[in-house]
Design goal:
By secondary structure, this protein is of the alpha/beta class. Helices cover 51% and strands 11% of the residues.
Length: 487
């Protein structure tokens, strides 16, 4: 007989300020979950359904923290004594306690957190592995054991992991499965393993949990594809961008150059910002826009020396790109052949001024003056023919995406960005050549709309492959980081 297909409901419970809401935000992929440092941030049980393409996978319930666990346990034990009840009656006694009209008045927090469990939710009990274990927690664990609900304990090391082992020894007396997981930093693989482990606690949840994990994998692939498309569209738009100004017959066109360049750069920055918001929306990080300090390094001037040194091509790659396109100037080659290859993240300083010339930041685009058929002239700035510029844009977009894709929805601090992170995202020769070809196609004069779509599609496919490699590289790194352990 087939197992019933019931989407799991998981009540996240524990002491106040132990990371319950952070775990809910991470597993529900929902940055609207309220997370605060003050006790009592969560006052009422609230459900956060996890859906992908409208399909319900599971539901997390954020609950208030235990406040008077010892008194509640004493009430339960007294009710059991009066009724002459055995352990077999414990779950019924808990249910009667929650539904008693007097209990919510005396013990509002405990009734609020027990209600979803009485209604059939499983239990994720969260403790802080950075604080010492104390006997006061045993009343909480005893109450949860009385419910008879499938349960798992999560040790969340908030500041340190100094007390993880004492917690593990105590929790194994009450819970069959104990995991050590950083609720804020948990990577994608850790979250999947947690769900699969919970599926083993309840037979009817096994199938839905496996289906949920498969849906999460498919969603991850789809997000990667969407992000790659956003980056490809940004690059295609940037390579075709021009700004224009009408020039009267008696005007000197050169007087418009500075203003046109300023407009050109502003439009590029605007389009990059639009792309960033789109990628953040792909990964459902909507609240990042409210954080003025987020992505501080990536908010540096797109045309600054530091940006081009961090995200541009290495020296030998720039020479190769120039030679392949036939557009490398003698000055670029002459400078590039002196000294060692420039690595991403090289320190800025006195050397930057000398290097900036061959990097190309000072030669982003040129102004052309075009005769208009009906008289007068048109001053046009762009499009950019600079070999390095689209790679700078790609590097920034790729790095931004890696930060957003890896970020859990429990993180409420600024995105930490440094130039060293760009070094961890190398661009191998094969992918670079394919990207160069797409850039070259997108730069062709008179490109038809159909040809532009085809070239953008090809670029998107290559970038998707690049992003997948980034994820694989990140997964390998995560496997070497102790983010999860069994009891």
């Amino acid at each position: 007989m087939a197992e019933p297909f019931i989407e799991p409901v998981l009540a996240v419970v524990g002491h106040p300020n132990k990371g319950k809401s952070s775990l809910v935000a991470t597993l529900a992929q929902d940055d609207s979950v309220a997370i605060g440092a003050d006790p009592g941030t969560t006052l009422h049980a609230r459900e956060y359904p996890m859906r992908i393409d409208g399909q319900l996978l599971y539901t997390l319930v954020d609950t208030p923290g235990f406040q008077r666990a010892r008194q509640v346990l004493a009430v339960l034990e007294e009710r059991a004594r009066v009724a002459g009840a055995s352990a077999a009656d414990h779950s019924r006694i808990v249910e009667e306690f929650v539904k008693d009209t007097d209990s919510p008045r005396r013990f509002p927090d405990e009734c609020e957190l027990l209600r979803p469990i009485v209604d059939g939710a499983g239990i994720l009990y969260v403790v802080d592995g950075g604080v010492p274990y104390g006997a006061e927690y045993e009343a909480e664990m005893a109450i949860l054991r009385w419910t008879g609900a499938p349960s798992m304990a999560i040790i969340n090391p908030i500041a340190t992991d100094d007390h993880v082992e004492s917690w593990r020894a105590a929790l194994t007396q009450f819970f069959r499965v104990v995991r050590v997981i950083d609720a804020v930093e948990a990577d994608f693989a850790t979250r999947k393993r947690l769900l699969l482990a919970f599926g083993e606690l309840e037979t009817s949840w096994r199938g839905p949990v496996v289906a949920a994990v498969e849906a999460l994998d498919a969603e991850r692939d789809a997000r990667c594809r969407e992000a790659a498309r956003e980056i490809a569209e940004l690059l295609a738009d940037a390579l075709a961008l021009t700004v224009e100004e009408r020039v009267a017959p008696d005007e000197d066109p050169t007087q418009h150059r500075d203003a046109l360049e300023k407009r050109y750069k502003a439009e590029l920055e605007r389009r990059e910002e639009v792309h960033r918001r789109a990628v953040q929306n792909v990964y459902q990080h909507h609240a990042l826009e409210a954080n003025a300090d987020a992505l501080e390094l990536l908010d540096q001037d797109l045309f600054s020396e530091g940006t081009w040194l961090t995200f541009g091509l290495r020296r030998r790659d720039l020479v190769t790109a120039g030679a392949a396109s036939g557009a490398a100037t003698g000055a670029v080659v002459d400078v590039a052949l002196h000294g060692a290859s420039l690595l991403l993240g090289v320190a800025t300083g006195a050397a930057v001024g000398g290097l900036l010339g061959w990097l190309g930041a000072g030669r982003l685009a040129e102004m052309k003056v075009i005769d208009r058929p009906l008289g007068g002239k048109l001053a046009r700035f762009g499009p950019s023919k600079n070999l390095n510029f689209p790679f700078v844009l790609l590097g920034r977009a790729r790095y931004h995406r890696s930060l957003i894709a890896e970020r859990t929805h429990a993180m409420r601090t600024s995105v930490e960005v440094d130039s060293a992170g760009a070094v961890a995202l190398p661009l191998d020769a094969d992918l670079r050549k394919r990207i160069e070809k797409s850039f070259s196609n997108l730069r062709k004069p008179g490109l038809s709309p159909v040809a532009r779509i085809e070239a953008t599609d090809a670029l998107s496919t290559t970038i998707e492959e690049l992003l997948v490699r980034d994820e694989e590289r990140g997964s390998t790194t995560d496997e070497n980081r102790p983010s999860e352990s069994d009891a």
